Amino acid sequence: MSVDGLTKMTKIEVVVPGENVPAVREQFRSAGATGFTSVSGVSGLGHNGYHQGRLLFNQQSALELLISVVPEAKSAALIVGLRRLLDESPGVMFVTDTYVSRPEYFG
């Protein structure tokens, strides 16, 4: 399905503590994601109160936002894997439909 020449994909955003970032990256890779964006030091107010974006002692102490876009056919397996990970550790996942101009980048 296209909107004004764009291709529909699935965007998955995950906020986790620094120590869980490698596991999220591995989920992205194993699901066939061709890339991701990572933003460290994120802050905000949530379920467990306010989280500051600054580092406390090391990189592991900060929250990180990881974002990946995958074709819809790859999204179900990725979502299942991330839900399993988040069942056992702190974090939150957001899943949205998105549209991209260069679908070949997300192969």
Automatic annotation (TrEMBL):
<dbReference type="Pfam" id="PF00543">
    <property type="entry name" value="P-II"/>
</dbReference>
<dbReference type="InterPro" id="IPR015867">
    <property type="entry name" value="N-reg_PII/ATP_PRibTrfase_C"/>
</dbReference>
<protein>
    <submittedName>
        <fullName>Transcriptional regulator</fullName>
    </submittedName>
</protein>
<dbReference type="InterPro" id="IPR002187">
    <property type="entry name" value="N-reg_PII"/>
</dbReference>
<dbReference type="InterPro" id="IPR011322">
    <property type="entry name" value="N-reg_PII-like_a/b"/>
</dbReference>
